[in-house]
Amino acid sequence: MSVRHALLALLSEGPKYGLQLRQEFEARTGEVWPLNVGQVYTTLQRLERDGLVESDDAAEEGPQKGFRITADGADELAGWLRTPPDLSSPPRDELVIKVLVAFRMPGVDVHEVIQVHRRYLVELMQQWTHLKEDEGQFDLGFALVVDAELFRLDSVIRWLDTAEGRLKRAEVEQPQSASFPMPKLRRRVGVRT
Amino acid sequence: MTTAILKHPAQLGRDDGNGGVPARRAMIRWAGRLFRREWRQQLLVLALIIAAVGATVLGAAVATNTPMATNAGFGTANHIVTIPGNDPHLATDIVAIKARFGSIDVIENENIATGTVNTAVLRAQDPRGRYGSPMLSLVSGHYPSGPDEAALTQGLATTFNVRVGDTWRDAGQVRRVVGLVENPQNLADEFALVAPGQIKSPTQVTVMFNATASGIYAAQSAGFKLPSGASVETPPPPTTNIINPSTLVLVLDTFGLLLIGLVAVAGFTVMAQRRMRALGMLGALGATDRHIRLVMIANGAVVGVMGTLIGAVLGFAGWFAYRPRLETSANHVIAPFHLPWWLIGTAMVLAVVTAILAARRPARAMARLPIVAALSGRPPSPKEKQVSAMRGGILVAVGFGLIAIAGGSKASGGMLPLLLGIVALVIGSLFLAPVAIAGLADLGHGAPIAMRLALRDLARYRSRSSTALGAISVSIIIAVITCVVASARASDVLDYSGPNLAPNQLVVYVGCGAGEGNCPFSPVTGAKARALRSEVAASLGTHEVLDLDSAVYQKTANIPTSKGGNPTATLFQMNTSRNYSGPLYVATPAMLHLFGIRQSTVASNADILTSRVGLAGLPNMQILFGDAFNQGPSPGCSPSSCFNNPKIETVSSLPTGTSAPNTVITEHALHALGLTLAPTGFLYQTAKPLTAVQINDARELAASTGASIETKNSEIGLSQLTELATAAGILLALGILAMTVGLIRSETASDLRILAATGASSRTRRALTGVTAGALGLLGALLGTAVGYVACIGFFGSKLGELTHPPILDLLLIIVGMPLVAAAGGWLFSGRQPPAIARSPME
Amino acid sequence: MSYLELRGVSKVYGEGPTEVHALTGVDLSADAGQLVAVMGASGSGKSTLLTIAGSLEEPTSGEVLVGGALLSKMSRNDKARMRRRSIGYVFQDYNLLAGLSAVENVSLPLELDGVAAKKAQSAGMAVLEELGLADRATSFPDELSGGERQRVSIARAVVGERHLLLADEPSGALDSANGEAVMRLVLAACRRGVAAVVVTHEAQLASWADRVVFLRDGRVVDQTEPLSGIEESLLAHGPKQ
User: Fold this and answer.
1) Residues of C with CB below 8 A from B288's CB?
2) Percentage of chain C exceeding pLDDT 90
3) Residue B553: which H helix or E strand, with range?
């Protein structure tokens, strides 16, 4: 998510001052996403340059300067909300590469490698879950962020589980499987035109 | 949640580890709830217990009330002296008895003719007599007091067609009927009561008095003598024989409950398996083995108590409804609450105990099951096949032996080994059931999926399907034994029993036929007989009249029957010394014509014609005539009274009733043996079954001349008995199937769900249930028939030849029909998507 | 002090060629107030571990101590008594007894232990109230939704003075919201001093635990470090941009 669109989203609720924008941004993301003042102002200046926000001309530069969203800005925001993030090409995931390397390297127990990562991920998840434990002081936005993190980590663990199962089956079926070449992922990805 | 933490130290220290009363109460409550939810699945067991208890209550009431009281005919006296009416010193003899024994009560009887086989008397008795009053009660009107008054029993009044107020003519004496009376101790006692002293020439006089044994002895030693022909009688002592009707009812009840118990074991086993996961959960919650057993046993007890109570209520209701009819058939007045309470109580307790014991077996098996296995719904591993087969084989062999012992002994002492033998066979077949089931799965290889799955499931869940199978075979065993025994009896051509006549047949007897030992009347002959013949024909409105004639040996024809002569020809089997049990009439041309038999179709040298299949094949047959019986059954066959190996021909057109001419002697034999015709009676055939009015008219006509009549009696024929047994066996088997198959299939509801999900249509579902029911039914029928035949072979032993006429139709019905009906029923009733598919069954 | 302790527990099913080693030398302990999760794929032996810990099954070798008592030294009845007094079970498929209402199901372990029905049911009612199920107390299991059923079975597992809670895939077929609710209840029980063991293959459920033990092919292969200084470490990194 870009700070750019986050600021646009905040301004879509009504005109706000720069300082106010920073505070609200942090509050809404459950304070897990710290933002410095400089970042806020550079972004606002770029938005103004692109004609997506307007500032109060009368006021001076500084925390008291107010901003509001333009019609172009609103269009940009609406378009952005509906544009899917780029998930089509696999990210250069370090974990995937590590596992791929591990099972081909002689003398390395790939299951042990997987377990190290799994344990680390579970520990991370434990920390995030722990945040949920005290429901009383639990902000909704924060909850959404925590859930997102948990699901993301969960999906990685599931991949590890699946990978381990697949490796185990491969070991049983063809013990010499370690010699097959690195898969060429690109080749297999279907393209919509 | 801290509030929920409960301190209960009071119970901690002193309970026995089983939670005491509250735990038991909780288990019983749960069992009760389960029964309320699932009573339909236990309906068959419930119904059987209801039937058993109801039948026992009714049977016990009937059995104890049917025999006459031992003091019937004695009033309140303990001695009676019967003096023949022809005693020349009657009056002085009576006075002598009175002088010797104190107060007496005198009843005078004079025989009167009624025109029926039943006798009646004219009786002079004091209704307020010292001893005789319990033998007399007024139904309506009042007792006769004057010389021209009489009170009749209901039966006699009907016979003479008189009512209270009418005049009644008897032997020239005219009396007014002033009341209806009865002998409460013997309702069959038909008499006309007149005031004491009104009988001029009594046939016999009964003097009742009380005396002690020593008093009698003293009288005898003092030289007191009864008049000639008179005898002293005392009431027989109350029976001390252990085999009395009540014990018989109890034995039958116990036996019946034993069989029901087996069915119940099957039902409860299936219920237990159905609740397996819940019981496992209970174990995981900390229920002990005793708790788990208690749930199952409480369920059994609920079924037992419910069945017993409903059965008892129905039994009593039946008794109160039936009592008036029993009074007429048992011929004495019966008090409604004169019941064998000990017997009824015992039967009720037995029924509850049966249900509890039946529930105990699966309860113990469940309690022994590892909790993890129960929780996962894994069926307990069945007993070793070989062990089960061996036990079953041994039990069947023991049963065979016991039944063979019973079959070998002629006396009724064979009853106990017979019952024990059947029990051994039944239990043996229960052990054989799992073995049979285990073989099923192998049969299914290569069959369509539904069949393969159904058969495999039966084999997999063997413990529940084999109890069901055992119960089915038990019901079939009983039916097969009954059928085979009945058909063996039916094929015993010498001693055939069954209905005597068809409903449209009537016989008027004018002379005594063959086999009638005591002829109650003197023969009607000549013009009188001919007149009667046509009068009855006219009143019945039929022209189909057949003269029934016995074949009589001329030279002994004049010897009176009472002197031991038996002039009538009979059939006799020499090596078994058995008489053919029916009358042997002469096959006159008229008779052959009536039954549509052409003379030309019968061999001219045939001696005997018969409709009884098998009679012709019997060896060592003889026709006895003349005074053969006076000579006794000698090994030789004197030509003057015996004819060896008569030619017997089977003619199916002859009637089959025992009193109808089913076996006849030909005129050829008649001439060859020098026999002549002796008119015995007339057989009438009408187009429609005879009505009660027609029968009564004929009876009255016959009575007017001193003849008697015979019509169809209500005896159950052997074929009917076979049909009943077959129907009952099949119904019971189907009932067991209905109870168990649904449960067996509901266990595999998840399989069905998966099948449905993989695209199996309702046809597959139907086929699954149909095959399950059909396979169980077929297996049960085969096993039951096999074991039933083992029993019969054991019983008949050397008389095996009698089994050569198997009840094929009934066996076909059992082996083919019942499984087909079961399969069709399973197919039909499983069409609806069971709710178990819609949602997973809650345990 | 650990309330539950497994020492070198092994379990072998079957014999000869069909022999299956479900567990091999498993050591596991759960302290009072601690929530331990056992994570493993299907067939890793985690359910067997739970049934052995709960005295429903005997280990082939090794020892199990519950509350300091050796299970192998106890009779069947003693074990049953211990189960109804000290151990609460939660199973994947709810396992409520049909024919008994929710409150009767909850109070059943107490009644089995000899507590009078009335007293037991008021205790059961109190637990149901805590779990927000007071209005469903008289409903029968087949009238309850899946989530409600599982909550009732948790109520049954914690009623009375339970010290050990054993749960086998407690969120079973429930959606994640209901699954979370179930885990919150388990955790709440732990915070009151109950030792709990949850076996699951789901990381999201396991992450509620204080300690996660990893089981593979019947062996304990790994476990997580205890939590410390959580929030700071998470917030310090921030999301990647």
Assistant:
1) 76-77, 80-81
2) 24
3) strand B544-553
